[in-house]
Amino acid sequence: MVRLRVFAHYFGLESDAADAFNAAFRIPNFLQNLFGEGALSASFIPVYAALLSKGESREADRVAGAVAALLALFVAFIVLLGVLATPFLVAAIAPGFTGDKRLLTTQVVRVLFPGAGLLVLSAWCLGVLNSHRRFLLSYTAPVVWNVAMIATLMFFGGSTDLPRLAVWLAWGSVAGSALQFAVQVPAVLAAAPDLRFTLDVGSEHVRIVVANFVPVFISRGVVQVSAYIDSLLASLLPTGAVTGLTNAQVLYTLPVSLFGMSIAAAELPTMSGVAAGEDAGHEGLRGRLDTGLRRIAFFAVPSAVAFLALGDVIAAALLQTGRFRHGDAVYVWGILAGSSLGLLPSTLGRLYASAYYALRDTRTPLKFALIHVTVATVLGYLFALPLPRLLGIDAVWGAAGLTLSAGLAGWVEMLLLRRTLNGRIGKTVLESGYVAKLWACAALGAAVAWSIKVALPPLHPILQACAVLLPYGLVFFASAFLSGMPEAAALLSRLRRSPS
After folding, report:
1. Residues 6 or more apart whose Cβ sits within 8 Å of residue 378
2. How far is the C-alpha of 242 from the C-alpha of 88, rounded, in Å?
3. Assigned domain for 108 exists
4. How many domains does the chain have?
5. pTM
6. Structural domain range at position 112
7. Mean pLDDT of successive 10-residue segments in the chain (500 residues)?
8. Is 137 a member of any domain?
9. Does a structural domain hold residue 372?
10. CA-CA distance, 414 to 344, in Å (whole number)?
11. Per the domain annotation, does 488 fall within a domain?
């Protein structure tokens, strides 16, 4: 969030340099999301965690070392290929860019590719540490990456023109990627003392990881392709659409990461161990799923309502500075409101996918991911390009149609994942009455917050956010607690608990 705010200060929204950098920046984000929370975690962690749960730590470390060696070779090939093929990649991800804008995008992509390779190796560190139930370092290490980029912007931003600043920022991203990988290595070596980096492709466990990797790689890659299609369509819209879409997606990713990916990542090693130890039935797996689904929904629903009702306050507080104006914040709110539709299914879908991976089923999520992308692509094109023309609104608002279509596709994918999994392990429970209570509590909080926003005199965006969002959260939490929701009571108990 801090990096996004500093970027907005120096680049604004409606600039070619901002669009060029944000389009190029999808390259490292693609590889990080694909490997970090996708293919590598889903294929490596279930095998590695199962070995650890059986007490076979030496064999587990042997598998980890072999996977690291194979991954390093694969990454080296991808980076080399990416640098050579950059002009074709830019044409694919941003066909609407021409002239200097396309040249700048090409230059930034070439700089970013080595850093993307380092982020993939960082994802391997995440897999090892998560399997040892060490989550904090692996999920705070990206802070170092962001700090490097923030420092680059603050050092060069005041004295460098925008096109050149985009290139310097790309180099800052590469330096941050190296630091993100380096800070995790000592903890990995301490957690896995028998680690040896060898190309041991003869191990049965390594072959299982590789076999599972391919369908999950395609599955997660398909989902990431959907984001690329959104960027491609946004590049056909007026200047500012790519950056506005990127800003909204970063804001949207915050609750997805906090409440969807974090719970799914924390549950994957545990569910893998449970699934490996259950000879008959899946009661333990269902129990983990039911608890995780309720925890995710408790936070995802109020986040979605906040984006829908108060997105202008959120966007202004985080982004309105320097070249980024209030009108730009309202534009980001419109895009963010479209994405709020898909927040709940996207976060729940993460946990359902982790359950499949714990069962070592990587093909079912792939099938439904393909359906997700098909629905999102067709609807995205219709909502982004023809629909604004038919409604007679500014073409730049087609970016909101992209997030709305992605939300609808997220519902389709989540419902398919749930139905198929229920048929396999028994019904998982997220009561409709519980979800309805969450929406009601969030709507009550939004009504109070909206009334405050309307009554307030003009304030600095950060002060306005404090005056509006804090009451929203307090009203939601209080009403959830009074409604008897155990998640609210558990959270209150944690807040009251004094450190031992």
Report:
1. none
2. 19
3. yes
4. 1
5. 0.72
6. 1-209
7. 89 85 79 63 80 87 89 87 87 83 92 88 86 83 92 92 92 94 93 86 83 71 71 83 86 84 80 69 83 92 95 93 89 92 91 87 86 91 92 90 92 94 87 93 97 93 95 95 89 70
8. yes
9. no
10. 9
11. no
